[in-house]
Amino acid sequence: MGGGARELAGYLAALAGWVAGLAAAVLPHWRQSSYAGDAIITAVGLHEGLWMSCAAQSTGQVQCRLHDSLLSLEVHIQTCRALMVISLLLGFFGIIVSVVGMKCTKVGEEDPVTKSRIAVAGGVLFILSGLCTLAAVSLYATQVTYEFFRESTIPINARYEFGSALFVGWGAASLSMLGGSLLCCSCPAKERRGQQYHQQSQPSTAREYV
């Protein structure tokens, strides 16, 4: 795969990861009601996310409510919120920086070495974005697992398990880190060596003609 095709593939993968991360952050399905156990309750399904909680009736009606207070939320929810916001910001800047640095665009610098370095910087931003998403989703999943298996008087069918947004978040983190890694592979080692050789050979050639 050529350098330009590799950069384009990495950019598209990272962009898809950023969009998936945005969807995961907004979706209220980070955890959902568990249907395990003997006495299954299917009349009402509860879903909770970082920003709101929803109740789905068996008739198809869904009612959602935003979390009332920021400071009264549990620590892991506040941490996941912060990590997802940081992830989306890093990914947004990565999108802009990568467009400037890709070989297939004519934005910004014309020097191929400089553009490659800018593309690598965009890849690093995407990798950091993916790591933040991975940390947020894994932290939330760890808390859900702990609350599900800990000893409690709450019936097992009234507890929570993984929601679909967690899997979307894991996929988003994987795509972002994969795309960022492909962009980082455009490091211009050969071009940089060739440029240095050209600069070193020019003075000796000039002296010969003098």
Automatic annotation (TrEMBL):
The keyword DNA damage does not apply. Keywords: Cell junction, Cell membrane, Membrane, Tight junction, Transmembrane, Transmembrane helix. Coiled coil: none annotated. The keyword Transmembrane applies. InterPro entries: Claudin (IPR006187), Claudin_CS (IPR017974), PMP22/EMP/MP20/Claudin (IPR004031). It comes from the Eukaryota. It is a multi-pass membrane protein. One of its GO terms (cellular component) is plasma membrane. The chain crosses the membrane at residues 75-97, 118-142, 162-185. GO terms for molecular function: structural molecule activity. It is found in: Cell junction, Tight junction; Cell membrane. It holds the Pfam family PMP22_Claudin. Claudins function as major constituents of the tight junction complexes that regulate the permeability of epithelia. Belongs to the claudin family. This is Claudin. The gene is Cldn19_1.
